[in-house]
Amino acid sequence: MVDSQRLSLEALQFYAEAYRDHRVAPWEGVPGEDPFVCSWLDQQNPARALDLGTGGGRYALSLANKGWQVTALELYAEVAERTQQRLLKAQLTDRVTLKRGCASRLDSWLEQTQTFELILDILGPFSDLRSNHQNNYLERVAQRLAPHGHFLVCTHISADISLKLLQTHFRILRHQADSDYLLWYHVGR
């Protein structure tokens, strides 16, 4: 079920069209991970990760291959099904737990005290939630971030808005603009 009360109308329309018009969404076939994420991950010891809005599971699969224990969340049933098939084919179901649900409701599908050393939101829920739900979402993410944990965010929300929202809940450790469109943030508690 898509949570139309929390997602922006633009996000709902965009994803509905992308998944309806393509058997596989265009971004699911993009090889590899972003250099911003890769450079940071190469310096980390595997631990627990949460991939919010996993899509085709690109980052979940990569993290699992590097030894991480991953919980991946996907909102859309069709995409979750394809991602599950990818996990089975890669024999990574012991390292990746795929859940289906809305990231704005983290408490409904995670164990009460479950925390993660790494949380990813790569052009996912933060970018797609209605502005009045973004602050609540970030509050929930902050509660799920382990002490000294890291939250990697990629968004298309303007820098003045996204930076202000993120600074309310996190320390900004690093940020950069990849283009006029994408802003990357590496934040911690």
In a few lines, what is going on in this structure?
By secondary structure, the chain is of the alpha/beta class.
Q: CATH superfamily name?
A: Vaccinia Virus protein VP39
Unreliable stretches (pLDDT < 50, length at least 5) are 1-5
CATH fold descriptor: Rossmann fold
Q: Between the first and last Cα atoms, what is the distance in angstroms?
A: 32 Å
| Tally of individual helices | 8
Q: What's the pLDDT, averaged over the residues?
A: 82
The top-level CATH class is Alpha Beta
Q: If strands are numbered along the chain, what order do they take across the biggest sheet?
A: 3-2-1-4-5-7-6
* Main β-sheet description: 7 strands, mixed
Radius of gyration: 15 Å
| SSE-based structural type | alpha/beta
Report on this structure:
This protein has 189 residues and is of the alpha/beta class. It has one domain: Rossmann fold (3-Layer(aba) Sandwich), CATH 3.40.50. Helix content is 39%, strand content 25%. The protein contains eight helices and seven strands; from the N terminus they run ααβαβαβαβααβαββ. It has a seven-stranded mixed β-sheet, sandwiched between helices. Helix 3 links the parallel strand 1 and strand 2. Helix 7 runs parallel beside helix 8. The radius of gyration is 15 Å and the shape is globular. The N terminus is likely disordered.
